[in-house]
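2024-03-11 09:14:02 DEBUG pipeline.ingest accepted 1 chain
2024-03-11 09:14:02 DEBUG pipeline.ingest length=124
2024-03-11 09:14:03 DEBUG pipeline.predict start
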Amino acid sequence: MAENTSYNIHTDTKFGFLKHIDIPAFVDSVEDEWFNQTLCQVNDCVVRVGVFKKGEFHWHKHDDEDEFFLTLSGEFIIETEQETIRLAQHQGYTIPKGVVHRTRVEQPAVVLMMEGAGVIPTGD
């Protein structure tokens, strides 16, 4: 897939402590094809939601941080230089720091991500 996807990435924390988070309502409000929002911070980590309607993210790595993905709906694809991982609904996968990877979808997907608060979503 060589398609150029426009990313809409928000690293600001959308919900502070003691706030109700309604994922389906939030997802319904997203119009972008590739959308990523930090929902909240838990200690030194952030929880993000990705709403991916089509396309792919560029190849990248995080030198100092691991990254966890959990598919809430649809199918989410993670590619490394060695393998392709397909995550169905309710399946998760952790990419360790330093591993070059990219993510993509062939159908709409909603993904929960957890990573260190200092991680740069587009890679180091």
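2024-03-11 09:14:41 DEBUG pipeline.report The chain has one helix and ten strands.
2024-03-11 09:14:41 DEBUG pipeline.predict end
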